[in-house]
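Subject: for your reference before the review

Hello V.,

The reviewers asked for a structural picture of the protein, and I figured it would be easier to keep everything in one thread rather than splitting it across files. Below is the amino acid sequence we used in the manuscript, unchanged from the supplementary table.
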Amino acid sequence: MRRIYLGVVFLAQAVFFAGLLWYANLPFGPEAVEIVVRTEPIDPRDYFRGDYVILNYEFSRGPESNGSGTVYAVLEQEGDSHLWKRVDWSDTLPERNRPDAKRIAIRGKYTRWQNVRYGIEKFFVEEGTGKEIENAASPWFFAESLPRQEVEVTLRVTPDGRAAVKDVKLVDADPPIEFFPAPLMDP
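And here is what came back from the structure prediction:
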């Protein structure tokens, strides 16, 4: 009887962790839509995980809240550009995101002061590269001392609006420099 109980507990744990892994990788699945947006990063440091960049999007400041915790930023491609920009807000998912869609909705949660968080605000990078992104983007406190570069973020968005950062690119570098997420642990 005890072996059966231990087997059931082990199986339940394995299914639970497999489900977490599947859910975490959902934005990188075959149904996800890939879009590119602009950002202005700043570079803090996490003593346990290393360098990361805080990504600030033009759609991070939401509309006045109606009391709901969830909001969708509706993005549309800017003319002939490869970049996407917010064109609307919605309290519900307007329609499921598809690769051929003209509009993509990203699900976020309200925080204080009408800020919206999407789970794509922190981007962990290889040790020592966070400052490179920060200096290139030249946030307001570096604006006069350093030349500013455009920073673009490639997002993967699921049909239901969850998003994940695929990469961050310094566009004005020659050649452009791409940063990919840092591994959680070194091999």
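For the response letter, the relevant points are probably these. The two ends are 40 Å apart (CA to CA). Residues 43 and 131 are 6 Å apart (CA to CA).

Happy to draft the paragraph if you're swamped.

O.
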